[in-house]
């Protein structure tokens, strides 16, 4: 049995999977309460499946980009579980998790995460020749710059997309395909599926060195000189 942990943004999600099937999943809006909500919900997940952490054979975690606090909480919890149970750890980019549920459309899929300062974290993924792949690197850019890079019909997804949908449609017209907000949660079952592909291939991460993907350094207030 494997656990998937996603705390990259205000939408948090946990899933327990076994033999490729989801046993239970919890997805909720944290309102930045990752610290106090993550572990109780993980315990609830074990109760729902009448299992325990001792049954885990791997931990899969969303690495971001996303909020600094959310990522610290989720990645730290994942590393702690993997270390204490001596089981493999697999980290997956959260942009890919958002995009993956649309892989079978064959369209370019552009997940968007709010990066603040009128910018977004994004990348583009697409199934080409039957292979799911990332076609542009992760980056933080303005909406204007993102729109200038879109040359063909592209599916935009992510919890931030409803807030910018009108802007995308105005700039891109029919090239902007907007995923429904009802289907656009970043679910940990998709995180688990991506992680299991790496896990079964023996491609796991170093617990000691794995780090969240921030793309932008956190703001740090410098100490005043005396």
Beta-strand proportion: 25-35%
Q: What value does the average pLDDT take? A: 93
The overall number of domains is 2
Radius of gyration: 18 Å
Shape: globular
Which class of secondary structure composition applies to the elements? alpha/beta
Cα distance, first to last residue? 55 Å
Number of strands: 10
Query: Element order, helices and strands?
Result: EEEHEHEHEEEHEHEH
Sum this structure up briefly:
This protein has 226 residues and is of the alpha/beta class. Helices cover 32% and strands 30% of the residues. A hairpin with a 2-residue loop joins strand 6 (109-116) and strand 7.
Provide a descriptive summary of the structure in words.
It is built from 6 helices and 10 strands. The protein has a 5-stranded mixed sheet with strand order 3-2-1-4-5, sandwiched between helices. The chain has a 5-stranded mixed sheet with strand order 8-7-6-9-10. Helix 1 (34-48) packs across helix 2 and helix 3 crosses helix 6 (188-200). Helix content is 32%, strand content 30%. The longest helix has 18 residues, at 68-85. The chain has helices spanning 34-48, 68-85, 94-100, 143-149, 161-172, 188-200; strands at 2-6, 11-18, 21-29, 58-62, 89-92, 109-116, 119-128, 131-142, 154-157, 176-178. The protein has 2 domains: 2-94 and 187-200, Nucleotidyltransferase, domain 5; 102-183, ATPase, nucleotide binding domain (Nucleotidyltransferase, domain 5, 2-Layer Sandwich), CATH 3.30.420. With 226 residues, it is of the alpha/beta class. Mean pLDDT is 93; it is low at 220-226.
